[in-house]
Amino acid sequence: MLDVDRDVDNGKVKPGQYLVLAFDFSAANRSSDVEAAEASLNGMLNSSIRTFYSTYAPYLGTATDDQLIRENVFPSAVESLTECVHVVNKALNAVREEDDPLCGVKGIYLLADEYDAFSNEFLSPDDARPWDHLRSNANSLLKGFWATVKSVLGVRRITKCFITGVSPLSMADRTSGFNVASYVSWRRELSGLCGLTEEDVFAALNMPGVCRTEDEMQKHFKVMKDNYNGYNFVELSQVPHIFNTNTCLEYLESLVRDEPINPSAVCNSEVSEPALQILAASPVASSIISDSLRSQDPKIPYDKLVQSFRLTSL
Hints:
Layout: H1 3-9, E1 18-24, H2 34-56, H3 65-72, H4 77-93, E2 107-113, H5 129-136, H6 141-151, E3 158-163, H7 171-174, H8 198-205, H9 214-228, H10 245-256, H11 273-281, H12 283-294
């Protein structure tokens, strides 16, 4: 049983309270041409809104998903998002009976996965022009998107947002339109969100086709614990360490294929080329990394970490 299943069974999590609108910013084509990249981003956003209608059309009135898409998805994804929230708000306001499927639904839960994947391609301490276009250009799609999200926050609209990313770039630096975010990575109650717990790993190893015997399961668990465990995202707090999700999944997949890999040579843990270029060009980042490598204890203390930073900080 996964931890989330246990939380549902124990009443800590109540499913069915939100309509989920998910955006994956890594899916957009990040061309070096900013305008071409924004066109791809616009297409990704609209595609996600179409998926939302296809999923929830039976609950949003009498229109079919095709009708909802045809009438409410516009060339501009920002307009599409605004109209999508209006459609949901209208449907929720129309609920009158307790047996209505939407009774108890609070609104839209917006998920933005890898929110920085798109704009990180244009980060460069040596040439800030592409970044400035995304951040301060009046016609910037990224700026318009987050400004719109902020404008439609509220009851029976976008009720909650959850945003994930790798680099803690200030949302205010990215766009002055969204300055209401709270940093939650270090919250104790979310300590297991950024990885897998021991229970999660054991549950995966116990699935059919992964391990043949108890001894084999224990052997592979030890390998994974020695190589992929030890992450802690909670400042000044003792919580169970978690396993790196990507490396665990790659190792588990190799077990399913019956082709075990070198546990220290998984390929899903490399730093991206743009990130390496940014770090190499940044005097601040280079100094921190150099000091850490020279230290007998290469761990970077929590008080040296920041919850967000601006491009000028590099």
